[in-house]
Amino acid sequence: MGGFDGKRVLVVGGSSGMGEATAKLAAGAGAKVTIASRDHDRLAAAAKRVGHGVEPAILDATSDASVAKFFADRAVWDHVVISAGAGGRGSIKELDIAAAQAAMDGKFWASFRVAKAATIAEDGSLTFVSGGLSQRPAAGASVIAAINGALERMSIGLALELAPVRVNTVSPGPVDTPMWDRYGPDQKKKFLDGAASRVPLKRVAQPEEIAEIVLFFMTNRFVTGTVVPLDGGSSRA
Ligand SMILES: NC(=O)c1ccc[n+]([C@@H]2O[C@H](COP(=O)([O-])OP(=O)(O)OC[C@H]3O[C@@H](n4cnc5c(N)ncnc54)[C@H](OP(=O)(O)O)[C@@H]3O)[C@@H](O)[C@H]2O)c1
């Protein structure tokens, strides 16, 4: 893929899953990539897997101070991707308000903080990762649906506000990433198999497939204000 030589790419959430796959694809295409997240060891391991001289950096997108520190040098990024976030699953009766607010902070406000602080080149791009629950909310996931819906709406507004910087969102269906490792291997497999059975293509996505659309957002100079469902047809079923 052309157009990446010397380009500076920041992937917040780049130490795992879709962020890591995006970092790998961009770095392999010649970009100078920084992966940022909270945990030093996870970053170091991811930097090794990604290779290509990718730079790890500590950044907690839930912390105003951490975000301010990271962006204090006012470096100009060509492309910024935010794929951080987790939590928020549970019914309204089970989920306490603090946990729901933490999930909102960890994804919606985390994305807001990074988008506000980052300086992006005029011909550059900003990409968010939402999630298919925004289009098809499910019982037990209404908070996640709300977070992803809010993120998608914000990204469209930002596309108008930040132009000529291009702003887009990929809205994935289920993806096989370490996000599900917390369930343990057996439960993870059961969960992903169950999710796959509800996808028209009868499988879940691989993180590399999400990375491909993120790189398209970076390189296509006319794409902005879009929310692309990459969900094997789930949002159309
Ligand atoms: N996997 C799916 O099936 C799926 C489907 C639809 C949407 N999504 C969404 O897609 C996004 C990426 O998911 P994924 O599956 O790639 O997850 P993942 O493998 O768990 O990776 C998440 C990344 O975000 C980082 N992160 C989390 N909180 C952060 C914070 N406060 N500041 C900076 N970095 C932070 C994590 O590192 P540290 O924890 O070490 O900081 C990690 O690098 C998430 O928002 C998720 O909700 C996932």
Please specify the SSE layout and strand pairing.
Blueprint: E1 8-12, H1 17-28, E2 32-37, H2 40-50, E3 55-58, H3 64-70, E4 76-82, H4 97-117, E5 119-129, H5 142-162, E6 166-172, H6 185-197, H7 207-219, E7 227-230
Parallel strand pairs: 1-2, 1-4, 2-3, 4-5, 5-6, 6-7
Helix pairs in contact: 1-7, 4-5
The structure holds NADP nicotinamide-adenine-dinucleotide phosphate (NAP).
NADP nicotinamide-adenine-dinucleotide phosphate is lined by residues 12-13, 15-19, 37-39, 42, 59-62, 83-86, 106-107, 110, 129, 131, 172, 174-175, 177-179.
Describe the protein.
- The protein has one domain (8-225): NAD(P)-binding Rossmann-like Domain (Rossmann fold), CATH 3.40.50.720.
- Helices cover 41% and strands 19% of the residues.
- It has helices at 17-28, 40-50, 64-70, 97-117, 142-162, 185-197, 207-219; strands at 8-12, 32-37, 55-58, 76-82, 119-129, 166-172, 227-230.
- Strands 3-2-1-4-5-6-7 form a seven-stranded parallel beta sheet, with helices on both faces.
- NADP nicotinamide-adenine-dinucleotide phosphate (NAP) is lined by residues 12-13, 15-19, 37-39, 42, 59-62, 83-86, 106-107, 110, 129, 131, 172, 174-175, 177-179.
